[in-house]
Amino acid sequence: MTALVSCFARCYHYKNNNYRIFSDNIAEKILSDEEYSSIASNMTNGIKFFNPNFVGTKENALKWIVDNQLSPSVLGRSAFCEKTLLNAIKIGCKEYLIFASRYDTFAYRSNIDNLRVFEIDKSEMIEDKIRRLDKNKLNYSKVNFIKCDFTNKNWINNIINSNYDKNQISFSSLLGISYYLAKEEFSNMIKSISSILCNGSSIIFDYPTYEDSKETQTNEKLASGANEQMKSKYSYKEIEDILSESGLLIYEHLNNKEMTNTYFEKYNNLNPNNKIIAPKGICYCLAVKK
Question: Tell me, what CATH number does 125's domain have?
Fold first, then answer.
């Protein structure tokens, strides 16, 4: 459900804005019309949960929820990821690994040559996504799907035994993952991924901090309602230690203010009455293996 809601947020933002923080023109092809309408309706009907003092139309209610609750983290981390990916490609990255790929659409929007894309997720998620791609005649012939259950102790072997080349510089996205893993599980995941990366490869991820906000608390409740319990929070020092133990160094790190200033400023200048602000309690990190 959280994957569908994230896809909905990207789709809504694309359809309802001329200038976009993150431009995803494929998300609406991943969602069915029924799913889009159902999510929109459920969100609108829950406006009092999100904003008890809200007064306005249903359309305004939906926009308030998307812009204030659903989109900020999703759009910010997506924009951060793909900007840094493009920079990595310029300096020799040849492989893009998307862990817990869900309904990510990069491979179906991009025309970058000589970049091999690996979408890594549970069997049921990959099978569901392929059905959606087939239904909308979206070409996925260049995508390498790898079925992995991250709770399986030896899941990394599924990647090792694929046509992934660990001697090539790669870029790994772990967006939206750290929330749902215990600290030891997340640390072990970083170690496993780092073990198959060559020097110069990058990992990007977001993580929850100890700095709570109304938005992050609401997201925790939504995740819990979808049976996707958020398990961990981290300090900068804890993240730094986890990465260091795996031979990774922090290259770029953004808190909510830095995310807003870097990726949302132009949008907010154009929409002064409907600003999008990155939520407190979430940070974004790019690490490089040395």
Answer: 3.40.50.150
In DSSP notation, 225-249 reads HTT------B-HHHHHHHHHHTTEE
The model's pTM: 0.93
Q: Is residue 101 part of a domain?
A: yes
The set of residues, in sequence order, having a beta carbon less than 8 Å from that of 42 and lying 6+ positions away, is none
Structure tokens, 277:
């602000």
Boundaries of domain holding 77 = 71-289
Is there a domain that residue 38 lies in? no
Q: What is the pLDDT along the chain (290 residues), one digit of tens a residue?
A: 889 999 999 999 999 999 999 999 999 999 999 999 999 999 999 999 999 999 999 999 999 999 999 999 999 999 999 999 999 999 999 999 999 999 999 999 998 889 999 999 999 999 999 999 999 999 999 999 999 999 888 999 999 999 999 999 999 999 999 999 999 999 999 999 999 999 999 999 999 998 865 655 665 565 455 556 667 899 999 999 999 999 999 999 999 999 999 999 999 999 999 999 999 999 999 999 99
32 in a structural domain: no
Domain assignment present for residue 54? The answer is: no
195: left (phi over 0), alpha (psi -120 to 50) or beta: alpha
β-partners of residue 147 are 121
274: closest CA among 23, 64, 7, 16?
64
